[in-house]
Write a structure and sequence with these properties.
single chain; 3 helices; five-stranded mixed β-sheet; alpha+beta
């Protein structure tokens, strides 16, 4: 999983810019709940984690960007991350921008 943080979401065209990317390989996200994942990302990034997004594989960024807002969304994220065999990007939104 590639975690992108300390960046910002731009609207037109939608993208995540000016951030830091860190690859995580030894973290057991299956053993976490959504809120635990949010707390982990806050500790990793050193900033408040308002929202977490991931980009679904084989779908362009604008259409594949998916908000993890509840446990069902988190379960879908985990299924994709572990079952597809791809490096899944996850994005930390520290501003909580709801205009996207």
């Amino acid at each position: 999983m590639d975690v992108q943080f300390q960046g910002i979401f731009m609207k037109y065209p939608i993208c995540y810019t000016d951030g830091v990317t860190q690859r995580l390989v030894d973290i057991d996200f299956i053993g976490m709940y959504k809120d635990e994942c949010y707390a982990f990302m806050a500790r990793l990034s050193g900033e408040m984690c308002e929202k977490l997004y991931y980009c679904q594989p084989d779908i362009d960024f604008q259409k594949g960007l998916t908000l993890i807002r509840n446990e069902n969304n988190y379960d879908e994220f985990i299924a994709i991350a572990y079952e597809c065999g791809v490096i899944l990007p996850i994005y930390v939104d520290h501003f909580g921008n709801t205009n996207m």
